[in-house]
Amino acid sequence: MILAFIELKNTIIGEQNSKMADMKKFNELRAQNNKFVYKSYEIKEDRQNITLEFHYRLHEAARVSDFHHRLKLKKDEKMTTAFAMQNIVFHIGLAEAISYYKIAAPKDFVIECGSLNEEQKKWFSKLYFNGLGEFIYCNNIAVTEDTLVNFITADAEPFQKISLQTQENNIIPIGGGKDSLVSYELLKEAFADSLMFSMNPIVASKKVLDAHPLNAIELERELDLKQIFAFNNSGYLNGHIPFSSIVGFISIWLGLLYETRYIVLSNESSANEENIIYNGQKINHQYSKSIEFEDDFRWYISNFITDDVEYFSFLRPLDEIHIAKLFAEVAKEHFFDFRSCNVGSKRNEWCGKCPKCLFTYIMLCNYIDDVTLQKIFAKDMLDDASLQELFDGLSQSDALKPFECVGTYDEVNYALSKKYATYKREELPYLLKNYKPKEMDYDLSVDYDANNNLPPKFKEVLKKYVAKFSF
Fold first, then answer.
1. Mean pLDDT of the 15-32 span
2. At CA 217, angle to CA 215 and CA 218, rounded to 5?
3. Alpha helices in 188-242 (DSSP H)
4. DSSP assigned state of 386
5. Mind giving me the DSSP string for 244-292?
């Protein structure tokens, strides 16, 4: 008992020392990296392409480092560039800057190519703080929303809002996973001319775009990876960023270019749940997919950029159980093409070892037959003993919820308990042998009026399909 106590005490002291060392590194980096600068943005247009180029700079005590970031979009006949796009392009650059800012996370963030008023500074302070929540947690950083970053802007004229006559049509970001495919399948009848957008598309999303070439928007995003990797290899900071916020600003730009009113995301209600609370902060891997961010983003776009493009999530009233069943019903043609695994997506495979693979398998296990599901994932993931820790993280509320785009504990336990009941005791796969099914009253009803921003026509489409498949 005494030895066990000593071991526990040493473990706690070790963890505390590790956190102190991380915090010391963070403070040292902030001291020697005294400011981050958003130097400039540039819009280049020729007959074939529109290219956006962004220049950032990190000031250290002994050196200055430059970062160059680029977005490239092929032009087509549906697009118009006959409007002043400086406002939205400036904001894309401000959202993209977070990939470089986090390297040292200096206190001062100087903007030399535009201005923000106090409301806008506060908005971006919230985005950076909550969007970097996982980064803050994983690097053991002790900061608040008020102390993480101080935006200092140029003394320039404020940007004017953009006014365009947009059409009642959609742009649907396609990521290659099941959620965006569900949105596309449910909306294709009501909106036959929906545009589909993918950034650096993986094989799964490229296949969808290639099947609809006249409705496809493909954007090339090029980070300054050589510089980023050089800093990371030198001991600078790294971690998760709010990528969906970047997609948000870029999609507003696309809505303006294509004079299209609706940007249709595929974020569900489960994205609202945090992974852990750290120093009083809710750490949510999916913060920029949450309803809190969506509401904030809509407010910001309407107040400072345009009233003519509207951003919302079509699947927000649903949870992962609803989406899994809808996917199984309406997206059969995509069963062997979709990829939600971040580890294997570039190789067009399911790695079979990560939280996203296991979670997706669990969500689908009651709606796709075992033979087909095991063929999709190349194995029975519930029978893989090496996944026990991930399984516990997904199913046990006292474990750390994996930092991935996964659903709630209740969703996982509902799916597992339902699947458990289909086996005889002696047939249980490995991960279910010690699992205790839950007696739970899981509410599958859908509230279409709470915590979502669906326009009426979209709400009616969603209601029709949910009613059709009897949840």
1. 68
2. 140
3. 203-211, 225-233
4. G
5. HHHHHHHHHHHHHHTTEEEEEE---GGGGS-SEEETTEEE-TTGGGSHH
What is the average pLDDT value for the chain, to the nearest integer?
Answer: 90
Q: What would the pLDDT profile of 170-196 be if each residue is shown by its tens digit?
A: 999 998 889 999 999 999 999 989 999
Q: At what angle do helices 370-377 and 355-364 cross, to 10 degrees?
A: 160
Whole-number pLDDT of residue 6: 36
Vertex 223 angle, CA 218 and 225, to 5°? 135
CA-CA distance, 148 to 133, in Å (whole number)? 11
Distance of CA 267 to the CA centre of its chain: 9
CB 142 within 8 A of CB 25: no
**Helix, coil or strand: residue 403:** coil
The candidate with the shortest Cα–Cα distance to 254, out of 431, 73, 40, is 73
HSE at residue 348, side-chain half, CA atoms within 13 A, is: 9
Long-range Cβ contacts of 443-450 (<8 Å, 24+ apart)? 444/321, 444/322, 444/471, 445/471, 446/317, 446/318, 446/322, 446/471, 447/317, 448/317, 450/317
Yes or no: say if 382 and 432 are a contact pair by the CB < 8 Å rule.
Answer: yes
191-216 per-position pLDDT tens digit:
989 999 999 998 889 988 998 899 99
Determine contact, residues 237/105, Cβ cutoff 8 Å. Answer: yes
**pLDDT at residue 399 greater than cutoff 80:** no
**Residue pointed to by tokens 């009613």:** 467
End-to-end CA distance of the chain: 52
| Longest Cα–Cα distance in the chain | 76
Cβ distance 245 to 251 under 8 Å? no
Residue with tokens 């095991």: 374
pLDDT at site 19: 52
Tokens linked to 397: 């509320």
The closest of 357, 433, 440 to 397, measured between CA atoms, is: 440
Task: Find out whether 140 and 22 touch, Cβ atoms under 8 Å.
Answer: yes
* Burial tier of 350 (Cβ tally within 10 Å: 0-12, 13-18, 19+): buried
Do 218 and 201 form a contact (C-beta atoms < 8 A)?
Answer: yes
Q: Distance (Å, rounded) from C-alpha 228 to C-alpha 100?
A: 7
Token representation of residue 383? 């029978």
Q: Answer whether residue 1 shows pLDDT above 80.
A: no
> What is the Cα–Cα distance from 197 to 264, expressed in whole angstroms?
10
Looking at the chain, the whole-number percentage of residues with pLDDT higher than 70 is: 95
Task: Please check the confidence at residue 13 and state whether its pLDDT lies above 60.
Answer: no
